[in-house]
Amino acid sequence: MTLQAITWKPVKIDYNILSGSVDGLIGIQECTDYSLQNIKKGSKRRSISDEGMQIKKKKTSRSRNKKNNILLEKESLTPSTCGTTNGVSEVEETIHKVEKDLTNLESWNSYGLPESILAGLKELKFCQPTLIQSLTLPSAILGRRNILGAAETGSGKTLAFGLPILTGILNIKEKSINETVPQDQSDSDESDFDNAEENGMGCVRIINNVDIEETHRNKPLYALILTPTRELAMQVKAHLAAVAKYTGIQIAVVVGGMAAVKQERILSKGPEIVVATPGRLWELIQQGNPHLSQIDNIKYLAIDETDRMLERGHFQELHDLLDRINMEDSKRKERQYFVFSATLTLVHELPNYLKNKRKIKRSKNIEEMDASQKLQKIVDMLGISNPKVVDVTEGKGTSETLTECRITCDIDKKDYYVYYFLKKHPGRTLIFCNSIGCVKRLAALLSILDCHPLPIHASMQQRQRLKNLERFRDNENSILVATDVAARGLDIPHVEHVLHYQTPRTSEGYVHRSGRTARASRQGITVLLIEPNELPNYLKLCRTLGKGEDLPNFPVQENLLNAVKKRVNLARELDKLQLHVRKANSEAGWFQKAAEDMDILVDDFSSKDDTDEIQKHKKIAELKRKQLATLLATPIFPSGFSGKYPLLSNSKLSFDGNIKVENAVEVMKSAMEADNKNKKKNIPLFKPKKKVSKNESGNVGLKKISFNLGKKKNTKVRGKKK
Ligand SMILES: Nc1ncnc2c1ncn2[C@@H]1O[C@H](COP(=O)(O)OP(=O)(O)OP(=O)(O)O)[C@@H](O)[C@H]1O
After folding, report:
1. Residue nearest to atom 15 of ligand 1 (CA)
2. Which ligand 1 atom is the nearest neighbour of the CA of 342?
3. Which of 224, 308, 309, 483 is 20 to 30 A distant from 44 in Cα terms?
4. Is there an atom of ligand 1 within 6 Å of 152 CB?
């Protein structure tokens, strides 16, 4: 078979992207018109995989000649579909659609992606690469460079390393088939396949169990992708599997919290790619899992959220794994590495207590680093040589479409603001807390308030974690209350709001938490709830992320807070009573069990007072529950209330039909616009006042709190411990 090129056109690309990556490269040209001569049946190029074969054959003919392809589509139309609708022929419509599809895929053409992958991208309707993908794919695929990539959250980093890995594996497999199958045999196989198709026959292969086991035992492991959380591992697997649908490449997940036996069974099938969290993977390797025993042979290693994975004191298993994988220098040099995170190049100042020279001397390893030093450290740790660095974060890591703001209040008023926000601005909302205890408390409170929150934290059973994520995905008004276990990487479509119930401890934490919204060019809002003790951390965060002095204040309609407080206060009381009852019950249960163990009659020891106490609590709780139920049955914000902020065009009627709810992003944007117009300054962070007002009906913001940075004595505000 020969390919006769008739027209070549230069492809416009940014050659900086390829600089140093492909030796001797002077340009890339595209063959825009060509013919096939002496076509022998079958082409070696089709050997991507058994599963991908049929698709590949169709796509190959389609993309080789656009005109032929359109004709082919025309011919396949039955006479009944060739009519004219609204003056436009359906044939023309089809041609237009096919042309559009092909045009769409052309954006991916210059990266050397196999057609089976293009088919996957097309099915996902990914018409063109994102910025980070277009900047990394040429060097990664054509230049086989190691990549250090930093791009904002939700910008498509998974495919920036996923596509080169899938492409590389297909190329290796194709090469090995070409090397092992003799020319004649390969041709005759192809002929058989083609003949079978032409004759309308299927291609049948009989495989028995022994063959399957033998095949799996010999299957190589090509790539390992490591993630910090189980949920992220599963998501990455699902994402890559969707793109790899027509490639025949198998991908497995290895994570903790799931039956090890099941994971061993999956591994026994010999997946080419393993996506894993370090702990369980290391455990299985140490147990001598046969498929994982080739871990040092992998050709591709990707570490997602690398900065988190390599953090001091985290993932000791990762270091063990790296030692094992990089055992042989020659294999390490052959391997391609991908290191990605939104905060890979984010640097920040040392905490104040470490700035003290004496202390720094004691902890020698802790020092302030700039971005290149940080990257160098990662490169050294992973043993990577000559990496290509692509950083498009401009030092912030958050998306352009993210609206950022804050609400400042006293610690015990945070619950009011959270409930206010949820009622006033319904939509899929993720609330982050700094501890498991805080998640539990807030979820219990919101549950009493009928908000149906879904908690997620590390001490929950894995199955429950996944179930709650699933429910969060399925309901557009759902609320997820999470620790930072949900902060990194999770790609849940249409998360509208992220609330930081507590200020994140690090700037990285803020970037990743906030990045759960405003993904893939969608709009989203992130709101920090700040209490006085969190101010130093908040200000540091603003400095590190270049936010200037302060974030804008989220507008709250003060006249609506009274109704909010009534409900929240009642819910808090109810929560407290329920806690007493639960505690007393569990103590009674323990007492009874101990008595039974000692063969003692429980009645003899039961304390009547305790029972009365429980009974009393139960009665009061019942009363409060009824009161709250009555309140919750009436609209929280009565119809026709006069709001400070005009209702916006995209306001929608709430589920109870009485109140208008507003899009939080729009509310914030118009408030910012109004402030800009009036040259109004943001509500000051520090407005010293002698006393904290007892009147809670007004703005519970900073106007009433004495903040005095630097004077530690005054910054403490008594409140409920979270
Ligand atoms: N080329 C593309 N065209 C359209 N959508 C895309 C493309 N590439 C990825 N996406 C989609 O964009 C979303 C975000 O992608 P991804 O999860 O890879 O982001 P990320 O940069 O890894 O985010 P994070 O930093 O939060 O982990 C996903 O829903 C993904 O399916």
Report:
1. 156
2. 25
3. 224
4. no
Nearest protein CA to atom 20 of ligand 1, as residue: 154
Dist. CA 283–CA 260, nearest whole Å:
10
Tell me the residue type at 161.
Answer: F
Ligand 1 near 120 CB (within 6 A): no
How much is the pLDDT for 387? 94
pLDDT in tens, 174-215: 888 776 655 444 443 333 333 333 333 333 344 444 444 455
Coil, strand or helix at 389: strand
Copy the structure tokens of residue 298: 């992998």
C-alpha 647/C-alpha 255 separation (Å) is 47
What pLDDT is recorded for position 55? 34
Helix (H, G, I), strand (E, B) or coil at 607: coil
Instruction: Pick the residue whose CA is nearest to atom 27 on ligand 1.
Output: 489
Among the atoms of ligand 1, which is closest to the Cα of residue 516? Answer: 26
- How far is it, in rounded angstroms, from Cα 572 to Cα 562? 15
Query: What local confidence, expressed as pLDDT, does residue 350 receive?
Result: 60
Distance from the CA of 153 to the center of ligand 1, in angstroms?
8
Pick the residue with more confidence: 58 or 506?
506
126 CA closest ligand 1 atom index: 3
Q: Which residues does 111 contact at the CB level (< 8 Å), separation at least 6? A: 129, 137, 138, 141, 142, 163
Cα-to-centroid distance, 243 and ligand 1 (Å): 12
| Cα(1) to centroid(ligand 1), Å | 40
638 alpha carbon, distance to own chain's centre: 38
Q: Which of 32-41, 218-227, 376-385, 555-564 has the lowest mean pLDDT?
A: 32-41
The closest alpha carbon to 113, from 89, 133, 86, 87, belongs to 133
* Structural contact between residues 71 and 99, judged by C-beta atoms closer than 8 angstroms: no
498 lines ligand 1 (CB under 6 A): no
Q: Is 516 in the pocket of ligand 1 (CB under 6 A)?
A: no
ipTM passes above 0.85: yes
Q: Would you place residue 295 in the very low, low, confident or very high pLDDT band (cuts 50, 70, 90)?
A: very high
- 228: its two tokens: 């910090």
What is the pTM for the complete model shown? Answer: 0.72
Rounded distance between C-alpha atoms, residue 376 and residue 378, angstroms:
5
What residue has token string 């699902």?
238
CB of residue 514 inside a 6 A radius of ligand 1: no
Give, in order, the Cα–Cα distances in Å from 436 to each of 71, 458, 481, 720: 62, 8, 10, 16
Is ligand 1 within 6 A of the CB of residue 544? no
For the chain, give the mean pLDDT.
Answer: 75
The lowest-confidence range among 238-242, 434-438, 669-673 is 669-673
* Identity of residue 415: D
User: What is the pLDDT confidence band of residue 416, given thresholds at 50, 70 and 90?
Assistant: very high
Q: With helix as H, strand as E and coil as C, how does 484-503 read?
A: HHHCCCCCCCCCCEEEECCC
Helix (H) or strand (E) holding 9: strand 2-10
Among the listed residues 282, 381, 395, the one whose alpha carbon sits nearest the alpha carbon of residue 345: 395
E strand or H helix at 514: helix 507-514
227 lines ligand 1 (CB under 6 A): no
Structure tokens at 118: 């293009």
Q: Which amino acid residue places its CA nearest to atom 22 of ligand 1?
A: 157
In this prediction, residue 193 carries a pLDDT of 33
Tokens read off for 70: 């359109």
Query: Which residues on adjacent β-strands are paired with residue 10?
Result: 29
Q: Is the pLDDT of residue 36 over 90?
A: no
